[in-house]
Structure formats: C-alpha cells, structure tokens
Amino acid sequence: MRILMLSWEYPPRVIGGLAQHVAEISRALVQEGNEVKVITAYDEHSPAWEEDEGVEVYRVPPYHGRPLNFLSWVHQLNFSMLEKGVQLCRQEDFDLVHAHDWLVAYAARALKHIFHLPLIATIHATEYGRNGGLHNDEQRYISDVEWWLTYESWRVICCSQYMREELERVFQLPGDKIRVIYNGIRPQAFQVSGKDPAVRDRYAAPGEKILFFIGRLVREKGVQVLLEALPLLRDRFPVRLVVAGKGPYEEELHRLARQLGVDGQVAFAGFVDDYTRNQLYAQAEVAVFPSLYEPFGLVALEAMAAGTPVVVGNCGGFMETVQQGVNGLRAAVGDPVDLARQISLLLEDRELAAKIARRALADVEEKFSWTILARQTEALYRKVVFSPEARRWRRELAPSPPQAGEGRPFMESAPAPPSRYEREEKVPVS
Questions:
Q1: Which residues touch 72 (CB under 8 Å, ≥6 apart)?
Q2: How confident is the model over 189-243, as pLDDT tens digits?
C-alpha cells in the first residue's frame, strides 16, 4: 500500500513520544512491503528530504513569515504540509492519508477531500486529558480541532483501552470507529554493550544510586511528585535523581527543588542524545515515571527494554503495560509517600528488582514488537481502503480519471461538519 503520513514531529526533531512512534511504525510498515512518505516540520539540523530505513521524509518550514504564536505556527505549518501533500499526491496515487494528532488536522482533512483519500487518524492524547478538563479558550479550541479530526477520519487509532474510553467519553466517538493498537518498542535501540563510567561521573557521585526520569517537562508527567518524594528517600539511601528533557514546566521544577531543599540531589540534564539516554537507563537503579495523565507511556517500555526496573504512576496506559510486582511497580497518582515506598522496595531488594527487570524485557520482546503492530495497522488500512463504502465514495464522487502524467485533479471540498458543541447525534463512522 502507498501511505501518506502527516506528523508535526519526526526524529531528530523529538518533542515527545509521538516522533518515535511515527518513525517506528513507518519503518515497520516499509519492512512489511508498503511505501510510506512522511510530511513533517522543518528541522534546521536535518535535510529537507531524506530516506530513513526506506521511509521518505519531507520536512517543510512554516509557510511564510514569523508566526505570531504557537497556534499561528500550527496554521502556517499546515499550509506548507498541504502544499507538499498536493505536490506528492499529483505525482503518485496514495491509498490513504494517516494523520497524527490535531496539529496536522487541517492539511490532512484538505488532502482527504481534494484527492478522495480515506483518512485515518491516530490520537495520541487529548487536550482535555492533558489538562484535566478545558479551562480556557485555547484549550477549548484545540479540543474542538481534535474532535473535528476524529469526525473527518474514517477510523481513529488510539494506543490503549484507557484512551479508547477517553475518546468515547470526551468526543462521544462511536466505539466501532476506534481501533486500539498499542505503541511498540525496538529493544536493541535502548540497550548498551557496556557501561560508560564517564556518563555516570557526569551526573552522579560514586556510591550514589541513580533514579532516572526522561520525558517532556510538563505538569502531567508528575516530576514534581518525584521531587516531593526525594526527602523521604535521601535519609535512607544516597540517591541522585537525573531528570532528562525540556519543557514549559522546567523553571517551576527548579524552583520546587530549591524549595524542598533537594536541589543537591537533582541533576537537570536537559535534552540528552540517544547514547547518553541509553547509558543513563543502564546505570540507573530505577527508572521513575510518576505521571498524572498518561495515554500510553512509551518511556516505560524503553526502560524495560534497557533492563531497568520501573516505577510508574497508576494511571492511563501504564495500567495496561505495567503489572504490579510482575514487570514493574505502580504508585498511587500524585502521592509522593507511596511513590517513595515503591522506589524503596526496588532499592532495598535488588533480587526483586532483577526479577522484575527480566520479566519486563521478556514482555517487551513478546508483546510490543513493531512488526506485529505494523501488521495490525496495515490490516486496518486494508479494511478501510477496500471497503464497499470507500470504493463507492471514490467511484461516485471522484471526477473522471486524469490523463497520464496529470495525477488526480483538485476537488471541491465537502462542507464542514457542525461544531461538536452544537450537535446532539453521534458522528458518522465515515
């Protein structure tokens, strides 16, 4: 199949877990014999076009001028994505468009109607879930665009049963329109052949036990809970918390560490490269991800693949991937006392930690292979593309076939659906 993928981030531009997901599923789809082209945002350290393990990656800059703000940047990015998408669609016949999250909704929806391509969307998280509700006009706007993308999509993929329930509840999305396909992992990408003492010396003193967190520094990742747990741990263990990642909550975390008097036990590493990340996984006693909201939690699989025991927040997708006392430990959400208790169990009982780490690695290799997940994704593609509804839609609505070399012509766009705040009935399946 020929797939056109839209994503606002793609390695080496990595803001969160979405970038790695899009890269891995695209590579795995290519390995299964499909053709995948990805349109993504420009990155000054990467070429405008490259081939990544068979995936063709096109990077486009914001359309024109300097964006006024983040939403302005999103709109300009969509103009550029649409321009590149039209160019590619006129060069060859794609079977479908696959959009990842609301930031590419405008371009994806336009390509769907211009070229009569079925649209699949993956919703990695919702604005409602990230913020525990919608509290201002910008959040309500983003949520409405998310709903609109699910409305326009023929099918919607999410990464956990938890996210399925959230989509049904928040967007009133029909269950038969949703398909749960877990995130995956490439274990060897997070494993090291030996430990590099220079990396450890950079972040921790000899004898200190490393606790490792990596992720975007936003409130819902719960790093503040981990900081609050540190005073309960340092009296019993010589611990050093290494926090890797950047984000809008970083300044608040620095302030909280000083306020709690634990800034001497915390190393804020900022963005780290893959080598450093893997060394920190390998040299950490425990990887800790105390999320308050987590649609899936790919970082837990990364730690499992690296052979590092994990403690996670008892929420969202973590509840489907981490079994308490079997392949990891779970702490009550937002509770620093319970978080310290779960970490202490692994620091005290290294036999338990090793047993959990061995089982976690086995689970990662058996359950979360990108090859398996790519086959599930391709099966959904085929179900949509070759459905009677898709055949009828393209036959009845498409104009007469283009002449050789012309590609598909432009189509008049279908009318916009009603706002989800105005409608009362369920959205259609396609």
A1: none
A2: 999 999 999 999 999 999 999 999 999 999 999 999 999 999 999 989 999 999 9
Residue 72 lies in a domain: yes
pLDDT tops 90 at residue 96: yes
Report CA 256 to chain centroid distance, whole Å: 27
Q: What is the pLDDT of residues 129-163, one digit of tens each?
A: 989 899 999 999 999 999 999 999 999 999 999 99
- Global confidence as pTM: 0.79
Nearest CA to 6 among 73, 63, 72, 80?
Answer: 80
Type of residue at 359: R
* Calculated CA dihedral for residues 411, 412, 417, 419, nearest 10 degrees: 110
Looking at 327, 345, 367, the residue that finishes a domain is 367
Q: Say whether both 147 and 272 belong to one domain.
A: no
Same-domain status, 253 and 316: yes
Residues 252 and 300 in one domain: yes
Domain encompassing residue 287: 187-367
Rg (CA), the chain: 23
CB 179 within 8 A of CB 157: yes
Classify residue 237 as exposed, middle or buried by CB count within 10 Å of its CB (0-12, 13-18, 19+).
middle
33 and 121 belong to one structural domain: yes
Q: Within this chain, do residues 220 and 138 fall inside the same structural domain, yes or no?
A: no
Q: Which residue has the tokens 């999509």?
A: 153
Instruction: In whole angstroms, give the CA distance from residue 159 to residue 143.
Output: 18
Residues 142 and 37 in one domain: yes
Which residues are 242's β-sheet partners? 212, 267
For residue 16, give the nearest of 297, 410, 210, 346 by alpha carbon: 297
Are 5 and 38 within 8 A, CB to CB? yes
CA dihedral angle for residue 102, residue 108, residue 113, residue 117, rounded to 10 degrees: -120
